[in-house]
Amino acid sequence: MMLKRAMFRCGQLCSRVFAVEFDLRTEPLYFTLSSTPQELHQAHQQLFGGDEKLFSLHVHSDSRTEKARTHAEIKHKLSVALSRDCDVFEASAFIPDVKNSVVKGFFIRDKSTTSLSEDVLKTLQQSKSVCVFSYKREGQYCWQELWSPVNQVEESVRQYVTPAAAAERHPSTLNITSSDVYYCMNDAYEVLRECTDIIPESKEVLKLVNEQLETSRGDAFPVIVIEGLDATGKTTLTEALRESLNATLLKSPPQCLAPFRQRFDSEPPLIRRAFYALGNYITAAHIGKESLRAPVIVDRYWHSTAAYAIATAVGGRVENLPKPGSELYQWPEDLLQPNLVLLLTVSPEERLRRLRDRGQDKTVEEAELEINQLFRLKVEEAYKRIQNPACIIVDASPSPREVLQQVEHLIRNKCHLKTTSSLPDETRSHAISPHTTRW
Ligand SMILES: Nc1ncnc2c1ncn2[C@@H]1O[C@H](COP(=O)(O)OP(=O)(O)OP(=O)(O)O)[C@@H](O)[C@H]1O
Ligand SMILES: Nc1ccn([C@H]2C[C@H](O)[C@@H](COP(=O)(O)O)O2)c(=O)n1
Fold it and tell me: Which of 55, 73, 147, 229 is most exposed, with the fewest beta carbons within 10 Å of its own?
């Protein structure tokens, strides 16, 4: 039964292009499978040409939540259970330019002489969602075959590794829509609904969404979003703006989701990002209400959700990000748009100094950001590529007072507002009036 299932999965994969993130500084290694022997290119020789044991495994399932969780579990297991002699690379099998065609997995290169990797793979293969291949060499050629712990897969045919041209779009960009970034509320809502059995907190989050959603926005005061990597000064600035504009300060995710955040942060992107996406819709409902009374400042919103999600989903280099202008950078049609989005930027050195000075606990993602320069660059680049509205970049390296003045100036110009930091307190609340122009 297990073998039959594996053979079926194998058939589904064979016609795809395989990509292995062998060296994160360059393009992935791409190959297809062919029934006739093919000579390997020099680049492919680096991975397939040695005498190490090679395996790949791919995660299939008709249930997207099961697939996402199995992938995350395998990633964890491989990182803790394999020996130091094993290299694990992210891998995928996909159909070029076909959305949602990516089957994610891993490629394992085992330099050891022990059977530890086989033992680990044997347990992983028990899962009905996992399909394992091994790679064998003969002279110039390398072939892939369905792996079984006892090597008795008689029906498995040799499929020769055949170097393939680089894909125009990095494969990881093919599955972003509704797996990492949600472009309408329903898509995110559905993911959490599918999780209610395995994550009971999902029910409570959905209940909050149902209770709080309200999308009224009439002749309102302006809404200004402040974005940026952690420790770029968002909290400092948003609190100062609340004072100077006599504004309401909101955050995304909103306070009502705080008790659930840690729970969802430990879930794979499919589920974690759905949680943050729904947080934006609740914040949008709060914005709708509050902006009838006063200007609204928002600490993180859609730009953060999309930029972190895209940067996490896309492996390797900044060049792998979806190209500027891609539909992946578009604002969701059903999400309330702010009038102005400002992106605070500081140099990596200054940001690290601020992080160290603050010395607070960091989320895993923030800790990763600190050590992972590539990831930081991708988040910032993704921020800058998001459209409608695009963000305006603010150099946040001067003193808090100078940053505030700079931002007040921008708000005055872009929102046609009078900012009142220099006015006495009693005049402030009347200095900003609701606008009648389109936002
Ligand atoms: N303009 C500035 N110059 C120097 N230090 C600053 C400036 N703005 C903020 N800081 C300091 O940098 C640290 C991080 O600032 P803050 O908490 O405002 O950043 P943040 O973007 O809100 O971070 P996070 O997203 O992690 O909450 C704090 O210790 C703060 O006092
Ligand atoms: N609207 C939001 C807000 C936050 N996130 C994610 C992105 C990071 O992982 C993390 C940073 O938040 P902070 O620690 O500064 O509160 O939260 C998001 O995806 N969408």
Answer: 73
Q: Are residues 140 and 223 in the same domain?
A: no
- On the question of pLDDT at 188 being above 50, the answer is yes
Q: Is 406 in the pocket of ligand 1 (CB under 6 A)?
A: no
Question: Is residue 420 within 6 Å of ligand 2 at its C-beta?
Answer: no
The amino acid at 76: H
Examine the fold and report which residue of 174, 196, 215 is the final residue of a domain before the chain moves on: 174
- Select from 55, 42, 131 the least CA-distant residue to 88: 55
CATH of the domain at 393: 3.40.50.300
* CA separation for the pair 9, 317 (Å, rounded): 30
Cα 229 to middle of ligand 2, angstroms? 9
What are the pLDDT digits (tens) for 107-146?
A: 999 999 999 999 999 999 888 899 999 999 988 899 999 8
Same structural domain for residues 246 and 390? yes
> Is position 34 within any domain?
yes
Among protein residues, the one whose CA lies closest to atom 6 of ligand 2? 305
Ligand at minimal distance from the CA of 225 is 2
Q: Same structural domain for residues 408 and 300?
A: yes
pLDDT digits (tens, 9 = 90+) for 55-108: 999 999 999 999 999 999 999 999 999 999 999 999 999 999 999 999 999 999
Task: Point out the ligand nearest to the CA of residue 347.
Answer: 1
User: Domain limits at 51?
Assistant: 3-174
Q: Please indicate, yes or no, if residue 305 is contained in any of the structural domains.
A: yes
Question: How many structural domains does the chain have?
Answer: 2
117 inside domain: yes
Distance from residue 203's CA to the centre of ligand 2 (Å): 21
- Residues 144, 283, single domain; the answer is no
- Neighbouring C-beta atoms of residue 381, cutoff 10 Å: 16
Q: Considering 174, 193, 222, which residue would you say is the last residue of a domain?
A: 174
Q: Can you give the pTM of this predicted structure?
A: 0.91
Indicate if 275 and 406 belong to the same structural domain: yes
Q: Which atom of ligand 1 is nearest to the CA of 397?
A: 1
Residue 191 lies in a domain: yes
Cβ of residue 235 lying under 6 Å from some atom of ligand 2: no
Pairing of β 223-228 and β 296-299: parallel
Cα of 183 from ligand 2 centre, angstroms? 17
331 and 405 in a single domain? The answer is: yes
ipTM of predicted complex = 0.99
Residues 275 and 191 occupy one common structural domain? yes
Is the beta carbon of 305 within 6 A of some atom in ligand 2? yes
Pick the residue whose CA is nearest to atom 12 on ligand 1.
354
